[in-house]
Design brief:
- Helix 2 (163-176) packs across helix 3, helix 2 packs parallel to helix 9 (380-392) and helix 8 (346-355) runs parallel beside helix 9.
- The protein folds into two domains: 2-121, Thiol Ester Dehydrase, Chain A; 142-406, Alpha-Beta Barrel (TIM Barrel).
- It has ten helices and 19 strands.
- By secondary structure, it is an alpha/beta fold.
- The longest helix has 19 residues, at 22-40.
- Bound molecules: (5S)-5-amino-3-OXO-hexanoic acid and zinc ion.
- The site of zinc ion has 8 residues, from loops.
Length: 414
């Protein structure tokens, strides 16, 4: 959650019209108050600054933009980061009232601090909070994408291929905090497949070992037909998937093209509905928001809606804060969302999603590295790292019961 204010700093305090540093802290105080009200319905109190850096001079007449963001949640506290940028400066040499936008905003101050709402002042949980109060983010659902269609054993020898390997990997991921398994399957020689019987064997192996939401892919691999891609949706009863991915638009996919024609998307959405699965709507590009809105209008998908932003595919939307903020800002009210960052973007984007209040997807489908130059020994270490990040920010890792409720997925199929 972010807050921004822009003010003209009227008076200098020191020689040469220099503004005192306390002025920046006053601005951060107002930004912090706004964030506290939006998170807790209470003004809160500043407890401490952990760091303050004055980086550039500010002079009387400068316009300063002060931005703050909540980056961690305690029981009664909120951790925040602030940045102040000079955005407009007077140019008295040009005219007495002349002012110019700076070509690049200049960072003048950064700080980190903690605000609290003392326990005695907290509103009872039952009291309705006012409009504009968005509250605190709930538990974070971690999805493990453990197989994929493109990752090979040559890239990472820990990639699971057989049903037993997939089941074992799902169990390790569930133990590390994953509650959703995004599932692809492979033939015995490791080729991507969407064969119903291979899915059946993998789903059985997973469900024998752990309680997770099984989300089967309808994306498959580039070049597969729609019928082929929908193989897992033929499964019924105890073998049926609770969720299925729904890819809504065509993108460049590395050197390939991942084709999702409009009539085929409607067809896949209808098959997911008929199979009794909940769709996860996969968005790779900005225009996919509009396609998704159209699918809602046509009734092809309906509330509660869940979205996955897949960012960093070469040929689609890049993995950046700005892009994520744009996508989240365009979601229909009440929708839940997660982020899958591709390659080296996976863990940084997971962290960003956690701070922004979303859910995360990690795993070998999207990234084979745990650290620079260090291969992940399967998807479970990536899940464990994501779970650590969730807890470090003061959020809870969703339990399986919470994940089923948050994603509006019914009980385990039987
Ligand atoms: N393998 C990609 C071309 C999905 O699972 O729905 C598509 C994909 C998306 O993996
Ligand atoms: Zn996939």
């Amino acid at each position: 959650m972010k807050s921004v204010i822009r003010v003209r700093v009227a008076a200098g305090h020191y020689g040469g019209g220099l503004v005192d540093g306390a002025k920046m802290l006053e601005l951060f105080g107002d930004v912090a108050t706004d964030l506290c009200v939006r998170a807790d319905g209470d003004e809160g109190l500043f407890r401490a600054y952990e760091s303050v850096e004055f980086l550039r001079p500010v002079r009387a007449g400068d316009f300063i933009e002060a931005e703050g963001e909540i980056v961690g949640w305690g029981r009664t506290s909120l951790k925040m980061e602030f940045v102040a940028r000079k955005v407009i400066a007077p140019v008295p040499a040009a005219s007495v009232s002349g002012a110019d936008f700076l070509a690049e905003p200049e960072v003048v101050c950064r700080a980190r601090g903690t605000c609290v709402v003392p326990e005695k002042d907290r509103r009872p949980v039952s009291s309705a909070l006012g409009p504009g109060v968005v509250g605190r983010p709930g538990a974070c659902v971690i999805t493990a994408a453990i197989v994929g269609a493109e990752t090979t054993r040559a890239q990472n020898p820990h990639l699971p291929i057989t049903a037993d390997e997939i089941g074992d990997e799902a169990r390790r991921c569930a133990a590390a905090g994953a509650t959703v398994i995004h599932l692809h399957v492979r033939t015995a020689d490791g080729h991507p497949s969407q064969d119903a019987e291979l899915f059946r064997a993998a789903i059985r192996a997973i469900r024998q070992r752990c309680d997770v939401i099984v989300q089967t892919s309808t994306g498959g691999a580039v070049g597969m037909s729609v019928d082929e891609r929908c193989g897992a949706l033929k499964l019924q009863g105890a073998d049926r998937p609770e969720m299925a991915s729904l890819n809504v638009g065509t993108i460049n996919f590395g050197d390939d093209v991942f084709v999702n024609r409009a009539p085929d998307v409607l067809d896949v959405a209808a098959r997911i509905r008929a199979a009794g699965a909940a769709p996860e709507i996969e968005l790779y590009d900005a225009g996919h928001l509009d396609i998704a809105a159209d699918l809602v209008k046509r009734g092809a998908v309906g509330a509660p809606l869940h979205f996955q932003f897949v960012l960093g595919v070469r040929g689609a939307m890049a993995a950046s804060d700005r892009n994520l903020d744009f996508l989240v800002g365009g979601l229909p009210a009440g929708a839940t969302w997660g982020v899958a960052g591709i390659g080296r973007h996976q863990l940084p984007l997971a962290e960003l999603a956690i701070v922004r209040g979303g859910n995360v997807r990690v795993g070998l489908e999207d990234n084979v590295w745990l650290d620079k130059g260090v291969l992940a020994e399967g998807s479970a270490p990536l899940v464990a790292r994501a779970a650590e990040m969730v807890r470090a920010r003061g959020r809870a890792v969703a339990t399986i019961a919470e994940a089923r409720r948050l994603l509006a997925v019914g009980p385990r199929p039987s």
